[in-house]
Specification:
alpha+beta, 6-stranded mixed sheet
Length: 542
């Protein structure tokens, strides 16, 4: 293979297994807000205490310690609230462990790259696949010091992981560090304090199937009436029976409202979370529930009507439609987006681009979208592209993980499958085999357009190159057709290709009935007798 690594087989990405919707709690009275703040602050303190206990247990955690923590929280809240707090704590600790493992892998990638570059002679040139040596002795010296620092960090992280130690901040580490940079964040200390406290509140409850409206702690009726089961120390604030507080606000979920109403009417489990957006001063209610995992269709079924190959870039998607035989259909499509600005702006840009892509896929009649299974874990380290800061920012700005998750969930609602392929060599081979052949006077082919074709062909199981090994004999009927042609069962496989109506010369019928005209001879034997042959004079040198 000449150094080409083995490619992973394409696969159909599994569908989503959960749903979350949100609506605003409007027209809350001052008493409603007072109760919500009191409940959030009280249960937030309990959640912080439980998280501290869970981190202290480390790897010695067991079902008995979990039950003990829940028993300690029950008198201060309720059995259901204690269960929700301990479950949220367990999920947060597990997330911290996964982030710790990812951090260790990032350190290992940086250490490996530093060791490789330090082992090369100073000034050694690199290649596209491997970085070269450092440019000077000074740079080599500073990188050797950095290698020692990374090795120390790696050793400390490994010790923490082996001991079961994690570092978790309720409210977020980024918001915690913002306290020291209030001027850069354009916040006052009071504004930061309000945001910090709101992030550490806990007003959430898991659902229970069989209970009234699917949740006993935060109950929402099909008419949208919201009531909360108050913890024991705050029972004096109740305005309804059984220690409950009913809000004056009602909710009406515009998105998936019918599906939510069916669940609460049938008393199926629905989890709720109430939180405050301090920037807007608005309260929101989020409802979520699990549903059976969407069964993925077989890969052959996804390939039946062709696919749309999508190349992911820093500022746009490039898509190309391919039929089931791997032939490009029509012109490439581009769906731009802007990832600058706030997180909400970036998220809206991604959603808009994906909506356009999915609508076009439905109109084209395909059943699957092919996308690269991207992972820039080893590429984002600054040890490999230290001087290329803009390039590192470019690949770091592509939201590969969130993009794949959002595309899979949105495509499942449209009845489309997502086929993930190995991203190796798609841009290089696509430009080599498809960029120039498809370029015309009216169509400009970019490297990204050609990469979309390569991605689609890989998802269909075809090689990227347009034609592969020819038949071993002089005629195809002796040994079969080329290996990259249509299968024997395909209709029109052996038929002639009709001329394109927009490129056919004048007087040629567009229905493909044009007969082949005489062609000019390429041999001397068939040359006309009237042709005059002229021989150049020879040069004589003495």
């Amino acid at each position: 293979m000449g150094g080409v690594r083995e490619l992973a087989a394409p696969f159909v990405a599994p569908g989503p297994c959960g749903v979350a919707i949100r609506d605003r709690l409007k027209h809350l009275t001052p008493q409603d807000e007072k109760v919500l703040r009191a409940v959030g602050e009280h249960q937030g303190r309990l959640a912080s205490r439980d998280l501290r206990a869970r981190c202290a247990d480390g790897l010695e955690h067991s079902a008995d310690t979990w039950a003990s923590r829940k028993r300690d929280l029950t008198p201060l809240s309720s059995s259901r609230i204690a269960g929700a707090i301990t479950k949220a704590t367990h999920d947060q600790w597990a997330l911290a462990r996964r982030c710790q493992a990812a951090h260790i892998r990032t350190l290992e990638a940086g250490i490996g790259m530093l060791r490789h570059r330090l082992s090369l002679p100073i000034g050694a040139r690199g290649t596209k696949r491997a970085a070269g040596g450092y440019r000077s002795k000074g740079e080599w010296f500073h990188k050797s010091r950095r290698l020692a620092a990374l090795e120390a960090r790696h050793a400390a992280a490994v010790r923490d992981r082996q001991a079961g130690r994690v570092r978790v901040v309720r409210g977020g580490k980024r918001l915690l560090n913002t306290r020291h940079h209030l001027v850069d964040a354009h916040l006052t200390e009071e504004q930061w304090r309000e945001r910090w406290e709101a992030e550490r509140w806990f007003i959430a409850a898991d659902g229970e199937s069989g209970k009234r409206f699917g949740n006993e702690t935060i109950r929402v009726t099909p008419d949208g009436e919201v009531s909360i089961k108050l913890p024991a120390p705050l029972a004096y604030l109740a305005n309804a029976k059984h220690g409950r507080y009913a809000l004056t606000s009602t909710v009406a979920f515009a998105h998936r409202g019918t599906e939510w109403a069916d669940r609460v009417t049938a008393n199926w489990a629905v989890a709720y979370r109430i939180h405050l957006d301090t920037d807007r001063g608005r309260w929101y209610l989020t409802a979520s529930w699990q549903r059976p995992v969407v069964q993925t269709i077989p890969l052959e079924t996804a390939r039946a009507r062709g696919v749309i190959g999508v190349d992911t870039n820093a500022d746009h998607f490039t898509a190309y439609q391919l039929d089931q035989h791997g032939n490009p259909v029509g012109d490439p499509r581009r769906f731009p987006y802007d990832l600058s600005g706030t997180t909400a702006h970036r998220d809206a840009q991604i959603r808009h681009a994906l909506n356009q892509l999915l609508h076009w896929a439905k109109q084209a009649g395909v059943t699957a979208i092919a996308i690269e299974d991207l992972d820039f874990t080893t590429e984002k380290t600054r040890e490999k592209h230290g001087r290329r800061k803009r390039f590192r920012q470019l690949i770091s700005g592509i939201p590969t993980g969130k993009l794949k998750a959002r595309l899979v969930s949105m495509a499942a609602e449209q009845g489309l499958a997502i086929v993930a392929v190995d991203p190796a060599y798609t841009s290089m081979w696509g430009a080599q085999h498809w960029q120039r052949p498809l370029a015309t006077e009216h169509r400009r082919m970019s490297r990204h357009d050609a990469a979309g074709i390569a991605i689609g062909r890989r998802a269909l199981g075809h090689p990227v190159r347009r034609r592969t090994a020819p038949p071993p004999h002089d005629r195809s009927d002796r040994a079969g057709h080329r290996t990259a042609q249509a299968r024997p069962g395909a209709r029109g496989r052996d038929g002639t290709r009709p001329p394109a109506t927009d490129h056919a010369p004048g007087g040629v019928p567009p229905n493909g009935t044009r007969k082949r005209g005489p062609s000019a001879s390429n041999t001397v034997r068939d040359a006309p007798s009237t042709h005059q042959w002229v021989q150049d004079s020879l040069m004589h040198t003495g």
